[in-house]
Records
---
Amino acid sequence: MQKLLENRQDIELLVNTFYQKVLADERIGYMFSHIQGSHWQKHLEKMYRFWESNIFDLDSYQGNPMLQHIRVC
Ligand code: HEM
């Protein structure tokens, strides 16, 4: 059943579920293999902030996704 994103808890569930699928994906999962231990939790927390900033118009993420992706490509 689909559910509207209403709060931070919903964002965390979405991001966690999404990354479980990403890590299991044979085409892109390996691109995240450099992220280990506490770095992984930091990455997830960054992604929560990214999405809550965009969806709820907050200011909790101040990063540069484009630069980060240029680095990993
Ligand atoms: C196949 C597609 C994608 C791949 C393989 C990918 C991969 C990555 C990787 C490897 C990182 C760095 C993680 C780290 O070392 O901490 C990253 C960061 C990030 N990605 Fe992606 N990404 C993809 C698509 C997207 C899309 C579509 C979005 C948003 C619409 C997105 C948003 C971000 C953000 C916000 C960060 C954090 C940037 C920062 O450090 O501030 N990514 N991604």
---
Amino acid sequence: MTTIGLIGAGNIGSTVARLAVAAGHDVVLSNSRGPETLDDLVAELGDHARAATAQEAAEAGDIVVVTVPLKAYREVPEEPLRGKVVIDTNNYYPERDGHIAELDDESTTTSELLQAHLPESSVVKGFNNIYFEHLLSLARPSGAEDRSVLAIAGDDMAAKAEVAELLDSLGYDAYDVGPLAEGWRYQRDTTAYAGVYVDGDDWEHPRPATPELLAEKLAAAQRYRDMA
Ligand SMILES: NC(=O)c1ccc[n+]([C@@H]2O[C@H](COP(=O)([O-])OP(=O)(O)OC[C@H]3O[C@@H](n4cnc5c(N)ncnc54)[C@H](OP(=O)(O)O)[C@@H]3O)[C@@H](O)[C@H]2O)c1
């Protein structure tokens, strides 16, 4: 059993928390407005969940998931995350986050920005390219024929192994895309973004993603970049 700290408890944060509690983990949830605003979610999740400040969630987590609007990434507390594995779900939406020059000129990626903000943590990009409702509904036990893969990227192999183990417990196989700088391959507006789990326009009935399907989408992302 692992304690998962969540910085952000919205669509993705609450979904990861649901999967984690179902898998027998403990979760410590936080948001920007304060723990008391998470009473309903904590009550729904039960005894394995509690709410705290972001600082406390970061301190409590064996693994911490940062799942806030990207514009808030600099507010993620650095000190309590030292030496920890941090999963970064964030995507760049300039209309929500404002323009970030290093992302606009593609000199870095969203998860590298978080890694630069948390230099003593091991950031792993994950959960960013799946719609939160699909993340909940596509989870399957280990060995199930229709189990999906989830993409991860990071510079620390041991951290990726820890995240893969966590994903396995939550209902997914991990697909290692490579170092953090390769995270662009499944960022927003690539072929390997959330549509991997969608057949055509049918968002109501997500499809499981095999490693082959994700690999095909990642390769297409590369081809589009080469053509640009
Ligand atoms: N929605 C999806 O399906 C999806 C899928 C993959 C990845 N993502 C990405 O994952 C991130 C989270 O998405 P979401 O849809 O879950 O967003 P969301 O529903 O808007 O939730 C964001 C959460 O972050 C919290 N927050 C904001 N600023 C914070 C701060 N400074 N400290 C602590 N918590 C803070 C918010 O708290 P308050 O409500 O109290 O402000 C809220 O709980 C985004 O970058 C998004 O692009 C989303």
